[in-house]
Amino acid sequence: MDESKSISVILEVAERIFFQFGYTNSSMEEIANECGMSKKTIYKHFASKEEVLMECVKRKIDINSKRITEIIYSEDIKFHDKIEKIILATSENFKEIDISFLYDIKKSCKEAWKLIENHKLNHIPKNFTDLITDGIKKGYVKKDVKAEIVAYIYLSAMLNLLDSSFFSNTSNYSILEIIKEIDNTIFYGVIKR
Predict the structure, then answer these.
(1) How far is CA 140 from CA 69, 72, 118, 133, in A?
(2) Is residue 25 domain-resident?
(3) Which of 20, 65, 128, 168 counts the most CB atoms within 10 A of its CB?
(4) What is residue 95's predicted lDDT score, i.e. its pLDDT?
(5) Is residue 51 part of a domain?
(6) Domain of 149: which CATH number?
(7) Alpha helices of the chain — where are they, by DSSP H?
């Protein structure tokens, strides 16, 4: 197996294991076994479990960011379809991630958590301000809506989702149900009917 294929396999397997069992409850040995390779081979590519996690987080952020950005800035997708696609993509982004994984890295791996926080703070406000502004210009969003405020409300809702007290008070619902409700409430609250 060539080097780039090896790295890709390691990251795919590690991502699945981390997302399912959490970062602290996973070991390099488990990742190696699932990959069908030795720990020595993994350490040839990554210095530590934390480095594997960092690459998994970067990869997930890049994939998700690209997907959402393509939807928001596409000229070929109608505004209402963009909203539906964003809701679907956001749900898909969290589908395989257990909320405990996020709490785990927030506590155990500050650098990975910082990557997630920076991504949210640097991308959500701009992209969603642009989306809402475009919707206002095209007549799909109410004219009196303040696009930047709506973007920050969305950011705030997504940040609160990762607050353990918020999640414990909504424990009857899956993370997917909560995200879908946030998306529906925010987006459909500003769209003209």
Answers:
(1) 19, 14, 30, 10
(2) no
(3) 128
(4) 73
(5) no
(6) 1.10.357
(7) 3-21, 28-35, 39-45, 49-73, 79-95, 99-108, 110-137, 147-161, 164-169, 175-190
In a domain, 156, yes or no: yes
Instruction: Give, as one character, the DSSP assignment of residue 97.
Output: -
Q: What are the pLDDT digits (tens) for 92-102?
A: 777 777 777 88
The answer to whether the CB of 61 falls within 8 A of the CB of 115 is: yes
Does residue 64 contact residue 91 with C-beta atoms inside 8 Å? no
Per the structure, the count of domains in the chain is 1
Under a CB-based contact definition with an 8 Å cutoff, are residues 91 and 176 in contact?
yes
Integer Cα distance of 101 and 23 in angstroms? 7
**Stated pTM of the model:** 0.82
- Distance, CA of 171 to CA of 155 (rounded, Å): 21
In a domain, 119, yes or no: yes
DSSP 3-state of 87: helix
